[in-house]
Amino acid sequence: MAQNSSSHQLPAQGMNFEQVIQALDASASDDVQWRNGKAFSLAYNAGPEVLAVADEAYKRFAGSNALNTHAFPSLRNMQAEVLDMAGKWLGSTSESAGYFTSGGTESILMAVKAARDQYRRESSILHPNIVLATSAHAAFDKACAYFDVEVRRVAVQPDWRADVLAMSGAIDANTVLLVGSAPQYPQGVIDDISGIASLAKSRNINCHVDACMGGVSLAYLAKLGHQIPPWNLQVDGVTSISVDLHKFGYTSKGASVIMYANKRLRSYQGFVTDAWLGGTYASSGMLGTKSGGPIAAAWAVMHFLGDDGYLRLTQSARAATEILAKHIDNHAELSLLAFPDALLLSFTAHDPSRLNIFAVANEMWKRGWYIDRQQPPQSLHCTVNAIHESNIEEMINDLDASILIALASGQSGDAGAYGTL
Ligand SMILES: Cc1ncc(COP(=O)(O)O)c(C=O)c1O
Question: Domains in the chain and their CATH numbers?
């Protein structure tokens, strides 16, 4: 299969099924082998059984369209049931109301858009801004760029958590949303959600908790006896929260939930028009046509795993996280940026003049391991999945070998990118 070619032609005669599938498989030969547990970023894996359930459910509903659930009542019911189940993790009350979205970014886009529209309508704020820590996800900047909202980023504290006092100082009469992350992505620590939510409430501002990463795992880490500070809709002042099912829910890509404290707040998310010749067009999020694949996969995996399955998977992922974190913490050449609150960790070179941490990532990639590169500060980031309990020692051996090679070569690796165009 021709790659990166601008002159690739539609075949004059169609290929047969086997040829197409063979070509697709061949095209993926250089991809990270995430199904084998080699990815510590971008893909989530709880083993072949769970993947099989997700793939099969996805396949059956890939062509169904949740744009109109009159035609596809199955998708209406599945979305409603997924929201109910996820709502338990998120501390939903009988008032809470949410939507299924295509991912963390769409959930965040919608939280910002809903806050903008709410305060425009209810408080006549025409030039809104949001206040958040530098550690909050890049999707908030994207949301603000899309929806013409000012972003006010505030430096984190030395422990990488949001600085609530500094956030307070950045608020003005046009602030419509404060953000807390549970946990934030770059260093994997949980912000002071109670502090941020109470600040928001005292100033009559919305508060969104980005639990895209933690919405599943924090619920189960708490059950496993870990001390988890309050982080969900049970915290007074939290007005919305997001959780990605395609992360630690271990479902197929394209699945997230945004849950609002009540229906009034949620009402600012949707869009309805009949100002064209095609009749009423209503949609809950960014998409029009919305594949049933991610919805069915989420429903299927959640039912397949159940409460006990998620507890077990969280325990496995946490065990692997702790093994890796302790190894890094005791390593003469590495510094752990923060002991992980959940299943994410990041680390850097103890002495960057001796060891270039991106060179270590290069060596790991040569061995098939995909580890995220981030900055500032220059560091590597691991998202630890349940599958990694089985290969964390192998990964650690390769990490140690990669460090020795990077030290000996004295080379620098490239900074890479979290996301690409
Ligand atoms: C904390 C957090 N929020 C939001 C997102 C965005 O999610 P997505 O990539 O599904 O759009 C991520 C992705 O890693 C994340 O870690």
Answer: 56-302 (3.40.640.10), 306-408 (3.90.1150.10)
The minimum-distance atom of ligand 1 relative to the CA of 184 is 1
CA dist., res. 97 & res. 30, Å (int): 42
Gap from CA of 168 to ligand 1 centroid (Å): 25
Measured CA distances, 93 to 75, 81, 82 (Å) = 23, 15, 15
Asked whether 191 lines ligand 1 (CB < 6 A), one says: no
Q: What is the largest CA-CA distance in the chain?
A: 68
Ligand 1, atom 4, residue with closest C-alpha: 104
- Helix (H, G, I), strand (E, B), or coil: what is residue 403? helix
Query: pLDDT, tens digit, for every residue of 286-299?
Result: 999 999 999 999 99
Question: 137: part of which helix (H) or strand (E)?
Answer: none
- Residue 139 Cα, ligand 1 centroid: separation in angstroms? 7
Residue in the block written with tokens 């609150």: 341
Pocket test for ligand 1, best of 185, 241, 381 (most atoms within 8 A of CB): 185
Task: Provide the 10 A C-beta neighbour count for residue 370.
Answer: 18
In 182-286, where do the E strands start and end?
206-210, 240-244, 256-260, 271-273, 281-283
Name which residue sits closest to atom 13 of ligand 1, judged by CA: 104
For the chain, how many helices (H) and strands (E)? 12, 13
Per-residue pLDDT tens digits for 285-339: 999 999 999 999 999 999 999 999 999 999 999 999 999 999 999 999 999 999 9
Ligand 1 in contact with 244 (CB < 6 A)? yes
Q: Are 178 and 278 in contact, with CB atoms under 8 Å apart?
A: no
What separation, in Å, do the N-terminal and C-terminal C-alpha atoms of the chain show? 21
Mean pLDDT calculated for residue range 49-69: 98
CA dihedral 48, 53, 54, 60 (to 10 degrees): 140
Q: Which DSSP string corresponds to 316-362?
A: HHHHHHHHHHHHHHT-TTEEESS--SSSEEEEEESSTTT--HHHHHH
Q: Which of 193, 213, 341, 346 to mutate to test the pocket of ligand 1 (most atoms within 8 A of CB)?
A: 213
